[in-house]
Write a structure and sequence with these properties.
β5, α6 and β6 form a beta-alpha-beta unit. The chain is of the alpha/beta class. The protein is globular. It has 15 helices and eleven strands. The protein folds into two domains: about 260 residues, Alpha-Beta Barrel (TIM Barrel); about 150 residues, no CATH class. The protein has a nine-stranded mixed β-sheet. A two-stranded parallel ribbon has the order 2-3.
Length: about 425
């Protein structure tokens, strides 16, 4: 690489190229470690939270010594990045001890937290042992909405206090949110707030059931048209979806991998460890797990997760060759949680993906017997969703850019006649 460009290469470019090389050699570069399922909040949408006083959950958590032993094994195996998440990471009083041990091992560490348990002492400590990144989830811009979602009076002010404690110390902070029926009209205000603070903001509207397969979080999940509406109101998001679609156009998998069940980075470059030391292919997948208390990481990675990752599909579905699959998030874990079957298409995800492609004017070639393609049994529902987008065209939820162009890509093809371009029609 010429000297003139070597110094200007962004971390994102460097990280992406390094990830690609490490995945090609199946190096376990990315660890997601759930410290605890306990949390001081009672969020209605959460897939993985238990009360702070749940003694059964507390007793089952890995000890400090067990964490250290696992971190030693991860370092030896070549792991570079660790994401610590929960529940709430600061639910454990010894979390900073675990975190410091990981820092001394040289890992690049990201912290996911709701911010409500951050104190001046914690913030000062993080200055001394600086993380790579900290992400705080903001559940609403108003106190009323935030606490309606979290179920805890006073939690809004504690979250804001945590945000400012970190910012005042110059720590690397990002804000994020989950868009659900409770807070959908405040997502734009949350992004404005992040801009005022000078930090990045992102949000996600794709909900999943709880890891025990309870469907309760789905009660507050947005409708497909609402999710796509939020996409289209944000010009940056539209641009990113366009880049994403261009990057992932073409065959879903190369021919030699077309029969593989898993198509993500799980089991190739990444993995997850739950609070009790069970290792799986990702945080949502709890069907097949390896117990690190009974074995070691190398055995779990080289043999157990290799076998999981090597699983083949048992039948052809509409997802198998769908070229917009990366836009919907369908994966074996989602199939397990919503349908009890890793290969069964998740109807909600399919609806969102086709509506998103429809609204963005993206072509969706033939991919089997798809209900959301023209002639399919759910195609009318897709058309009705498009009508809802137009019906609410003047009602902006995320007017933070100053743009008057609400739906910049919708065109005549987005109406009822002609429908989406699915199946090449």
């Amino acid at each position: 690489m010429p000297i003139a460009t070597a110094g200007t290469k962004s971390y994102q470019d460097f990280s992406s190229s390094l990830h690609d090389r490490m995945q090609a050699e199946r190096v376990p570069a990315n660890a997601t470690i759930e410290i605890s399922r306990r949390c001081p909040l009672k969020c209605v949408h959460c897939y993985n939270n238990l009360p702070m006083g749940d003694m059964g959950a507390k007793r089952g958590e890995l000890t400090y010594s067990e964490h250290c032993r696992i971190l030693d094994e991860l370092a030896e195996a070549g792991c570079l990045w660790i994401l610590y998440t929960g529940g709430e990471i600061f639910a454990r009083k010894d979390f900073l001890d675990i975190y410091t041990y990981a820092k001394k091992k040289g890992f690049l560490i990201t912290l996911f937290t709701n911010g409500t348990l951050i104190t001046p002492q914690i913030a000062d400590y993080l200055v001394q042992w600086r993380p790579f990144s900290i992400e705080i989830t903001l559940y609403g811009r108003s106190r009323e909405t935030y606490e309606l979602l979290t179920g805890i009076p006073g939690s809004y002010d504690r979250c804001l206090r945590g945000i400012h404690l970190l910012l005042d110390r110059g720590l690397p902070l990002m804000l994020k949110s989950v868009a659900i029926s409770v807070n959908k009209r405040e997502v734009g205000d949350m992004k404005k707030f992040a801009r005022e603070l000078g930090v990045k903001f992102k949000f996600d509207a794709m909900m999943s059931p709880r890891i025990d397969c309870s469907q309760s979080p789905l009660k507050v999940r947005l409708q497909p048209w609402e999710i796509v509406k939020m996409d289209l109101e944000d010009e940056e998001r539209v641009a990113e979806w366009g880049k994403f679609a261009a990057r992932y156009s073409g065959p879903v998998l190369e021919a030699e991998h077309s029969d593989e069940l898993y198509q993500c980075g799980g089991g190739v470059g990444g993995f997850a460890i739950d609070p009790e030391g069970k290792m799986s292919i990702c945080v949502l997948s709890h069907v097949e797990r390896y117990d690190l208390r009974r074995g070691n990481f190398r055995e779990g990675w080289d043999h157990f997760l290799r076998q999981v990752r090597g699983k083949k599909i048992t039948r052809i579905t509409k997802c198998t060759t769908c070229k917009i699959k990366p836009m919907c998030g369908m994966c074996p874990a989602n199939g397990e949680l919503e349908n009890g079957d890793p290969e069964a298409p998740v109807d909600f995800l399919c609806h969102v993906a086709h509506l998103r492609a429809h609204a963005l004017g993206l072509s969706v070639p033939l991919h089997g017997d798809c209900e959301y393609c023209p002639g399919g049994s759910a195609y009318e529902a897709l058309v009705n969703s498009t009508k809802l987008l137009h019906k609410h065209e003047g009602e902006q939820w995320m007017d933070f850019s100053g743009s008057t162009r609400l739906f910049p890509i919708l065109n005549e093809r987005s109406g009822t006649a002609g429908g989406c371009s699915s199946c090449g029609l």
